[in-house]
Design brief:
The structure holds two protein chains of two kinds.
Chain A: E1 9-12, E2 22-27, H1 31-38, E3 39-41, E4 56-61, E5 67-76, E6 87-92, H2 96-108, E7 112-113, H3 118-125, H4 131-142, H5 146-156, H6 161-183, H7 194-223, E8 225-230, H8 237-248, E9 264-269, E10 272-277, H9 280-283, H10 290-303, E11 306-312, H11 319-325, E12 332-337, H12 345-354, E13 358-360, H13 369-379, H14 395-417, H15 420-438, H16 442-453
Parallel strand pairs in A: 1-7, 8-10, 8-11, 11-12, 12-13
Antiparallel strand pairs in A: 1-2, 2-6, 3-4, 4-5, 5-6, 9-10
Helix pairs in contact in A: 3-4, 4-5, 6-7, 6-15, 6-16, 7-14, 14-15
Chain B: E1 4-14, H1 18-29, E2 34-38, E3 52-54, H2 58-68, H3 72-78, E4 80-86, E5 96-101, H4 103-116, E6 120-124, E7 127-133, E8 136-142, E9 146-155, E10 164-167, E11 170-173, H5 185-191, E12 196-203, E13 206-208, E14 218-220, E15 243-247, H6 250-258, H7 264-267, H8 281-287, E16 295-300, E17 307-311, H9 319-326, E18 337-339, E19 342-349, E20 366-368, H10 378-396, H11 410-421, H12 445-456, H13 461-483, E21 485-487, H14 490-498, E22 507-509, H15 510-514, H16 536-547, H17 549-566, H18 584-593, H19 598-603, H20 609-624
Parallel strand pairs in B: 1-2, 1-9, 2-6, 9-20
Antiparallel strand pairs in B: 3-5, 4-5, 7-8, 8-9, 10-11, 10-19, 12-19, 13-17, 13-18, 14-15, 15-16, 16-17, 21-22
The chains are: A alpha/beta, B alpha+beta.
Chain lengths: 458, 632
């Protein structure tokens, strides 16, 4: 195969956790030449002279020849590499800061920063994986939660395909019945039984609804649930925040901050991965000017899927609390903090009347955090969710299924209206949306069913 | 044989069936000096199969042909015996006009129409050779040695091209209805580089009316009032004929089953590929052993004929078996057969060798239309003939071809399917193939296409003006319905209750009431005091647009998305072998078909969504790198 390589790209290929080995990958044209500019084998010579695919120990030098790190380098000539291009992997020691320094050096030596998903995209373009694999790998890459890994793996093996397939078959059956009666109306094709069609559509709609609802959980599994901790100064936001970190005792990762402005932390509470926004205002309330407090909290609130509103239940409510009270809604949990102190009953009653979910907690003693975990599970819609691969975690698939769900609803409305042609159109489209998840050529498939089920011909 | 110069023409049309007639008329009407050849001058626009025009999806095609300036709609209206709108009650997008036609009258109408056409010469001759020079057509030669010079040639040979008739164990070369086949042209076309293959179709028997016990059959009457095909026809003819429905019996099945070994379909003598939607009675019996009986229709063939067409019983069984099985059908016990059923095999081109304009990709000036392009049906043929005639004429005038998209008409779907996906069986138009059928309705074909027909030059100013006035009236009525609120009354309670709808209190807008299930425009008349007198087609159009507003809007969103994909052009000089990530099958298909845009690429069988994703990424990268660096 002719190697027609693109300019070299580079990025940190591992989640930069302190103390772990970090890998920097360089892929594309002249990768090994770029590597030779900064990596010097202990045994002398150049990386390019060593056998391919063998780990070479050496030093990474900075601009002025200073040693940045001792590292292993491996050269994978294309097409036998992850991306299908010539690829060099540098396995470095140390934490994020050192890795960033080495990365800067690689960039200075001629590689360009990889865009999001660019390695996978190149791998895909070079025929190293098909589209579904690429999608699943993309999921696996970001699947840093145990549940998400399990789900993505199960999807690859087709475990959740069965549920979607059953929906597809329901829809195809209705589509075929209407296709036959529309296109062969001058033949002896009996009209579809509308009650039967309604029942099949309702069943398909229900499963789609479950899959789509599950998809939200799937997305949360993959991306984490954006969570904002809000409250007036001294209500105890930061201690709640720290308690949550301690409670989970597993800071899984910092998102690599190369292109993103906001660094977030993921914690797992009640089985729900939360993406706690690491804005200075929320984390270190004492060091941040007051003026930033509300503004920052506001922007976090806007994008949050879950809001934890912290109130000091031992004190009367203040004007600043009113701001937070006004946020009351479905996705908000009220934390009556400092419940270990004397509770102000007026405050407590007011809070309980305002919010659907109120949990008494003490960030100091840890009291109530189990109840909070349970409330988070419930509010995130994770109660009773099985991580068995039937969750849709892929955005394209979710879009298709949710589109199909909407179309099935439209089809049922059309049925009520007596607009059979509109019903037929909606069902066919829904069938196509679901079929696209399964990779089925829908029109041909429906046609096949028409010919096998109906005796048609002049 | 001595070849002599017989004349110079702009365009030569080979065949005067439904494709050839429309092609020749369109070309001549657009000013091209045109000659049209037919093997038998008495068989112009012959209907060798069903004596009917229209039907599901086909009726839409005829309305579109009419809106673009073709002849078929007017001819059908002039020669109709019975009009029926199919699919009434299933929604306006699947309403399909259909009419039983007097086939002899239809032939005469079309022959006369061609004879009267300026710029058009109609000749009886068999074309035996296509002359090609430097990859472009030069003319055609007849069997008697007449060379006609032509800048463009449109092939519309129907089932005549190396036709072979089969009835049971008997077969011979021949065309339909006792005509000669065209025996030499096929070899000449292959020599010119065309890929030909063999398709098969069939037709049932014609039987004598007096031998049939019609009293034992159900009668199928036409619509009252009848509805015309052509937007020009002010008052359609009254229905003068009816059709009849009868059934096969267990005895029919027995005879077929016992004689299957004598069927060339099952014995392997027929090699051509037949249409799945048009199976023979023996096919149906074999494939659906549980069906105790199959429905048959008896259709009249003309006011001056006692022949009846036996729809549903096409067969290639030997004649004695045909007769035995027909005599087991209710009411046909004493049937007198006038023409037996037969199968016919013929040569046609692989339509993926054609551009959307229907011009052949490797022979300049050569166009194909109708069954030659792999379709089946008079209406499909006429639609292509019209486009081939238009595009051949425009090409000579230096104008770009007219290419209808899938969102503009069934005609666009038809041609796009043919040239993009190709077909492995005779292709029949179906409503299910039109993904935007909610807006491709028979009622709005004029709104969709008259303006295009006018720009082409086949639609008069008067017809365009009439169309524009009609739709202005439709819009005005829709606005009036939205603006008019009526108070609740005893009458409104009664009318809505009768329609199965809830009465309202206070006031309600007329369009809101019209959107309710079961409520129609006509039934609201007593509540709508200021209703203007409107022609039926105007208020019907307004009613459809109000009732389907939501669905139509959604469809328009899909169309917009479709058009975005269609507008992403694929450069014609792409080397698909250089694009990494494309699967081998996709590379091969894309290299061969060279789709003009991403939308078309996606419809090629063998090109997967993943391949399209690769192409999209490739196009994107190419754009980013300014088109300079193509080694993506």
């Amino acid at each position: 195969m002719k190697l027609n390589q693109d300019a070299a790209i580079t990025a940190i290929a591992t989640a930069p956790a302190p103390g772990a080995v970090g890998i920097i990958r360089i892929s594309g044209r002249d990768s090994e030449i770029i590597a030779d500019r900064l990596f010097f084998p202990k045994s002398g010579g150049k990386l390019a002279d060593r056998p391919a695919r063998s780990a070479v120990f050496g030093e990474i030098h900075g601009e002025r020849g200073e040693v940045l790190d001792n590292a292993l380098a491996i050269f994978f000539p294309g097409p036998a590499s992850y991306t299908g291009e010539d690829t060099v992997e540098l396995q470095c020691h140390g934490g994020p800061a050192l890795l960033q320094t080495v990365l800067d050096r690689v960039l200075a030596c001629g590689a360009r920063m990889a865009g999001p998903g660019e390695f996978t995209r190149r791998a895909f373009l070079n025929g190293k994986m098909d589209l579904t694999q690429a999608e699943a790998v993309a999921d696996l890459i970001s699947a840093d939660w145990e549940g998400a890994v399990k789900n993505a793996a199960a999807q690859l093996s087709g475990a959740y395909g069965a549920r979607i397939r059953s929906v597809y078959e329901n829809l195809r059956s209705v589509a075929a019945a209407y296709t036959a009666v529309m296109d062969y109306s001058d033949q002896n094709v009996s009209a579809p039984d509308t009650d039967g069609a309604a029942a099949e559509l309702a069943a398909a709609g229900k499963t789609l609804c479950e899959l789509v609802r599950g998809a939200r959980s799937g997305q949360i599994l993959r991306d984490g649930l954006h969570t904002a901790v809000v409250g007036r100064p001294n209500a105890g936001k930061s201690s709640v925040f720290n308690r949550l970190l301690g409670f989970s005792r597993s800071i899984v990762t910092d998102e690599a901050g190369t292109t993103r402005d906001v660094v977030t932390e993921k914690v797992c509470v009640g089985g729900v991965p939360l993406r706690l926004a690491d804005t200075a205002g929320l984390r270190e309330g004492t060091t941040v000017p007051e003026r930033m407090g509300i503004a920052l909290a506001r922007s976090e609130v806007d994008r949050a899927g879950l809001i934890l509103a912290v109130f000091d239940v031992s004190a009367p409510l203040t004007e600043e609390d009113e701001e937070v009270l006004s946020l009351a809604g479905e996705n908000i949990i009220c934390l009556c903090n400092k419940c270990d102190l004397t509770v102000d009953n007026t405050t407590k009653t007011r809070l309980e009347n305002t919010f659907n979910t109120c949990i008494s907690v003490s960030a100091v003693t840890g009291e109530g955090f189990d109840a909070l975990a349970a409330a988070i599970t419930r509010t995130a819609g994770f109660s009773g969710v099985r991580f068995d691969g039937s969750l849709v975690t892929n955005a394209r698939q979710r879009d298709m299924l949710s589109r199909a769900e909407e179309l099935v609803r439209d089809a049922l409305t059309a049925l009520e209206l007596g607009a059979e042609d509109a019903l037929w159109g909606c069902v066919t489209e829904a069938c196509e949306a679901v079929g696209s998840v399964l990779g089925i050529a829908v029109p041909e498939d429906v046609e096949k069913e028409v010919f096998s089920r109906f005796c048609i011909g002049k | 044989m001595t070849v002599f110069e017989a004349g110079k023409f702009d365009i030569a049309v080979i065949g005067a069936g439904h494709a050839g007639v429309e092609a020749a008329l369109a070309a001549a009407r657009l000013g091209a000096k045109t000659v049209c050849f037919t093997i038998n001058l008495d068989a112009v626009a012959n209907m060798p199969c069903n004596p009917c025009i229209g039907g599901t999806a086909k009726g839409q095609l005829v309305r579109e042909i009419d809106a673009l300036g073709g002849e078929m709609g007017r001819a059908a209206d002039a020669c109709a015996l019975q009009f029926r709108m199919l699919n009434l009650g299933k929604g306006p997008s699947v309403y399909s006009p259909r009419a039983q036609i007097d086939r002899m009258q239809y032939r005469a109408y079309m022959k006369r129409c061609m004879e009267r056409q300026e710029n058009l010469e109609l000749k009886q001759a068999e074309i035996v050779e296509l002359c090609v020079e430097d990859g472009a057509v030069r003319g055609v030669i007849t069997q008697t040695g007449a060379f006609y010079e032509a800048k463009s040639v449109i092939i519309a040979t129907g089932t005549y091209l190396e036709g072979r008739l089969i009835i049971g164990e008997w077969s011979r070369t021949g065309g339909p209805d006792g005509m000669f086949a065209a025996e030499s042209l096929g070899a000449s076309l292959e020599k010119a580089g065309l890929t030909l293959r063999r398709f098969k179709t069939g037709t049932p028997a014609r039987i004598h009316r007096r031998s049939v016990d019609l009293s034992r059959m159900d009668l199928q009457a036409g619509d009252c009032p009848p509805r015309a095909f052509s937007f020009d026809t002010e008052k359609p003819k009254e229905n003068t004929e009816v059709c009849y429905v009868t059934w096969t019996t267990e005895e029919t099945r027995r005879i077929i089953t016992e004689n299957l070994h004598r069927s060339p379909l099952f014995g392997g003598d027929i090699k051509g590929v037949g249409p799945r939607y048009c199976p023979s009675i023996e096919d149906k019996v074999v494939r659906f052993p549980d069906h105790p009986r199959h429905q048959l229709f008896l259709e009249p063939t003309g006011a001056d004929s006692d022949e009846m067409y036996l729809q549903g019983m096409s067969s290639s069984m030997p004649e004695d078996v045909q007769l035995a099985m027909m005599r087991t059908v209710t009411g046909l016990e004493n049937v007198e057969v006038q023409r037996p059923a037969y199968a016919i095999e013929y040569l046609c081109v692989d339509p993926t060798e054609l551009y959307q304009s229907l011009e052949h990709k490797s022979v300049r000036g050569l166009y194909g239309a109708g069954q030659f392009n792999g379709t089946s049906g008079y209406e499909e043929a006429a639609a292509q003939g019209l486009m081939a005639g238009i595009n051949a004429a425009r090409s000579l005038q230096g104008l770009p071809p007219v290419i209808l998209t899938r969102s503009q008409g069934y005609n666009g779907v038809l041609i796009d399917d043919l040239v993009t996906k190709g077909t492995n069986e005779p292709y029949r138009m179906m409503t299910s193939r039109a993904e935007y059928r909610l807006i491709l309705r028979q009622d709005n074909a004029d709104d969709r296409l008259c303006r295009i027909g006018h720009e082409i030059g086949l639609i008069s100013d008067e017809k365009l003006h009439r169309t524009e006035e009609k739709y202005a009236a439709v819009r005005a009525e829709m606005e009036r319905l939205a603006a008019t609120r009526i108070p609740a009354s005893e009458a409104s309670d009664r009318i809505l209750t009768e329609a199965g709808s809830e009465p309202f209190t206070g006031t309600a807008a007329l369009d809101a009431l019209l959107r309710r299930p079961g409520v129609g425009y006509e039934m609201l008349a007593p509540l709508d005091g200021n209703r203007p007198e409107l022609p039926r087609d105007v208020w019907e159009e307004a009613e459809i647009l109000v009732k389907y507003e939501g669905y139509i809007r959604r469809e328009q969103e899909r169309v917009a998305k479709f058009e975005r994909m269609e507008s992403r052009e694929l450069p014609q000089d792409i080397d698909y072998n250089d694009i990494r990530g494309l699967r081998i099958e996709a590379r091969e298909k894309l290299s061969r078909l060279r789709p003009e845009n991403l939308g078309r690429a996606g419809r090629i069988s063998g090109v997967s969504p993943a391949d399209i994703a690769v192409l999209m990424i490739w196009l994107e990268n190419r754009r980013y790198s300014g088109g300079g660096e193509s080694n993506v």
